[in-house]
Amino acid sequence: MIEFKNVYKNYGQNRALKGISFKAESGDILGFLGPNGAGKSTALNILTGYLSATSGEAYVDGVSIFENPVEAKKNIGFLPELPPLYPDMKVGEYLGFVYDLKGCKLPKKQHIKEICEVVQISDVYGRLIKNLSKGYKQRVGIAQALIGNPKVLVFDEPTVGLDPKQIIEIRNLVKELGKEHTIIFSSHILPEIQQICSRVVVINEGVIVADESIESLAEAVEGPRRLIAKICGPEAEVLKILRALPAIKSADAIGKVDSDSISYLIESDERIDARKPLFAALAAKGYPLIGLEGVEMSLEDVFVRLTSKRDQRRRGR
Amino acid sequence: MFAIYKRELKGYFISPIGYLFTANFLAISGLLFSICTLQRQSQSSVGDYFEYLIYAFAVLLPLLTMKSLSEERKTKSEQLLMTSPVSVGGMVMGKYLAALTVFAAVLLCNSLNFLLLETYGDPNVALLASNLICLFFIGALFLAIGIFFSSLTEDPLVSAITSMDVIFVMLAVSFLSDISVKWLAKVVDWISILARYEPFTYGILDITSIIYYVSIAALFLFLTVRVYERRRWA
How much is the average pLDDT of A109-122? Predict the structure, then answer.
């Protein structure tokens, strides 16, 4: 459905994409994961025909976006990072304009009405776009991508800047749309990709670090569980108790919380939940545990793990 | 292209820009008409009116095109146009033709002034018609220049001022037409808009001048498309 072959993109002297290749099959929800500035938006802008590549090939449903852009674009609905809206238009007018722009053949009123129902914007149909909340603007942006019922939907960080309730709504909507469309969903948030996507392409500094199923990603990111515990009591004593626990692999003090309590970074094995024995041991010695939180793996950690896992696989061949 | 044309045309009258342009155009043109014809009575000169109107175009028409592409770039809404199944040429032509339609409609309204001449005098209709046709093509050229500069910047004001400067230069070079340096006189003659306007002041519909205006307008529209293509590859 979508194919990127050895695509390079230079901005002057700066090389934004360094020969990336990936595929998305029909029905995939492909996560495009990477930190800000990794090259995600550049790749998506090339895929949708907004930018040209310095070299390489890109196909949408077998049609080259470089050789036959008008035809290839007919199969793509794109929501860029900033929704491409006209604030001075009403929602209905805007969607009508996009319908005309894409040269749709479906029955106009019915098609737009159906899309408004799917993305739940029927109640703001007659309102000016500039008066809508950010969440609604994002939904209108998704609605314009859906016009013409394209086979491929490309969403570039659609949840950025939304409040938690709106984020959940947009994620659910994308999952729902994934039942009928091939979707590329870019994000720099790992749990978001894990929640929505069936496959993931991880990109960093213009290079694809991993191209995995979501299960493989989960496997790769599973490692030692890390906790930050805030404990009252003398540092040496507390460390002695922590290090004596079989469930704990390592424990280190990382800073003072206040005059009588200290923060500790605790690592345990991936399959062991150290929280219960930790609590019991501290309670038995009379050192109060005043705070305990899990530490999520950073994207950098994920990249390191994925690359080392890839290298291990190569060595095994 | 038609969808972009329709939206753009509507856009002129959703925002105040279309109304302001129409009001200012008709006010300035009415004033010039009054000064050059009605107030001069027997000394009245329609030729002067048309020539002054060309200078007024140099200020007014860039105001019509200043937001055409710069605003799209600023708000990133151009991403919708560039990723939809419309060619860059279609996008540029849609924008251009919308501005041209507004200009043509206002120019036509403005022609109602000539009914006054018809009522109180005996004007040369052929002369008026040829001048009007020429003004339309000069306006079409100025709009193409405006569209081009609108594609180069995100700031509508920069786009308007640059377009005005370039148009003024193209008008002002006609003052150098008597220069003794032959090759320079030739260059001046080549880029002078007013030199090609002269036949129309005698009531002659000069096709070569029209072709010149259309060609230069087409050149600027082509350059606009190239600006987009180049940015895509940059």
Answer: 92
